[in-house]
User: Fold this.
Amino acid sequence: MVRISIVTPSYNQGDYLEETIDSVLSQGIPGLEYIIMDGGSTDHSVEIIRKYEKHLAYWQSQPDGGQTQAILEGFRRSTGQVLAWINSDDLYEPGTLAKVKREFEADSKLQLLYGDYSLLYRGGRKVAKPKISFDFNISLHAFLMIPQPASFWSRDLYEAVGGVNPKFQYAFDYDLFLRFGKHLDDRPEAIRHVHDYFAQFRVHEDSKSVSLQERFMPEYEAILAQFGVPPRGVMREIRKNVELIRALLRYYQERGFIPIRKEAGKA
Assistant:
């Protein structure tokens, strides 16, 4: 039986944390291991965590050096064969973990699994974000098609690439997924995308991806440099456009449509 370990890093997210916790614990799968790593919140987060502590494998609330360190320590304490993290403002769709469990139990070669996700705006409005199957060059040069909240991977894969890189505090998921993809480059069957909605990514003004967007860019550049991508210039833009065209063709082949970019916050 495959055991799934979920880690939630959190800091002062009390307005969203309980909904996240409920989305994990309500999955109802056997052997679920849930760990919450709170960075010493000063809001009502600890009060919320204590309500659920009997259902948690481990939790702490103390200064932890940031989100990356919290995730690293959470995974270090985990015991599952399948790993994932869900941030304290995001949600799993009902039934997600049971589907993930079935996929990994049915295929011993599977190392990385991801589904589709939705953007969740204030008031409960959701915008669907369907994805496509993984391609390393599209991910490296154009955009990452793996949505972090809707992704799950084997412990073997995580340990093989060295885990989350603590030198990155903002784009560490991009770095991790590129290293996953590179490691599995000769085993495309080990990466699977399913056309099913696994998670909701909450869009709000306090999230790092909204309020601290400018801090992501230096890390993106450092990550690209690790994989030999040249600095910004004409050749880089040409390669990016080539990979975007490949991505659009893949969307049409796999989903039957070409996605239209939508302005943030608008349906």
About this structure: Residues 263-267 have pLDDT under 50 and may be disordered. The chain has one domain: 4-255. Residues 4-255 form a domain with the Spore Coat Polysaccharide Biosynthesis Protein SpsA; Chain A fold (CATH 3.90.550.10).
